[in-house]
Amino acid sequence: MYLCHISELPEDGARGFDTAGAGQATIFLLRKGDQLRGWRDFCPHHGTPLPWRRDAYLDTSGQHVVCAAHGARFDPLSGLCTLGPCLGDRLIPVPLRIDDAGGLHVAGGEQI
């Protein structure tokens, strides 16, 4: 499943995608330097969406993914919860594929 071109992701930022037609983001892509990660958009503590507004996945320092509902913080590259009620849990990764033109896809074309 095609998501976007890599140039459409903010550097050191994140963007959500509604891959299931749910009316809200179900996954988000995160770009930190030359690293890309795809994560499911829900907190492992209660399953709530992470951002407090569209595409607001990172804290004000831009260093951690944060859950707006619980204040939990996650390492953006490993998905490990480093602070909050789900300490030690992880975000669920979404496998990505980059095509030769820089297009980002959910690997395997699966619906997430």
Written description of the protein model:
By secondary structure, the protein is mostly beta strands. The chain has a single domain (2-109), classed as 3-layer Sandwich (Rieske Iron-sulfur Protein). It is 0% helix and 31% strand. It has strands spanning 2-5, 13-17, 27-32, 35-40, 65-66, 73-74, 81-83, 96-98, 103-106. The strands form 3 sheets. It has a 3-stranded antiparallel β-sheet with strand order 1-9-8, with no helix packed on it. The radius of gyration is 13 Å and the shape is globular.
List the SSEs and their pairings.
Elements lengths: L1 E4 L7 E5 L9 E6 L2 E6 L24 E2 L6 E2 L6 E3 L12 E3 L4 E4 L6
Protein name: Ferredoxin 2Fe-3S
Pfam families: Rieske (PF00355)
Organism: Aquitalea magnusonii
Q: Shape from CA axes?
A: globular
From the alpha carbons, calculate the radius of gyration and give it in angstroms. 13 Å
- What is the CATH architecture descriptor? 3-layer Sandwich
| DSSP strand tally | 9
CATH superfamily: Rieske [2Fe-2S] iron-sulphur domain
Estimated share of beta-strand residues: 25-35%
The first-to-last residue Cα distance is 9 Å
Alpha-beta content class: mainly beta
- Which blocks of ≥5 consecutive residues have pLDDT under 50? none
Biggest sheet: strands, sense, closure? 3 strands, antiparallel
Helix percentage: under 10%
Order of helices and strands: EEEEEEEEE
Kindly report the spatial arrangement of strands forming the biggest sheet.
Answer: 1-9-8
* Average pLDDT metric: 93
How many structural domains are formed by the residues?
Answer: 1
InterPro entries: Rieske_2Fe-2S (IPR017941), Rieske_2Fe-2S_sf (IPR036922)
Keywords: 2Fe-2S, Iron, Iron-sulfur, Metal-binding
Domain Rieske: 1-105
GO molecular function: 2 iron, 2 sulfur cluster binding; metal ion binding
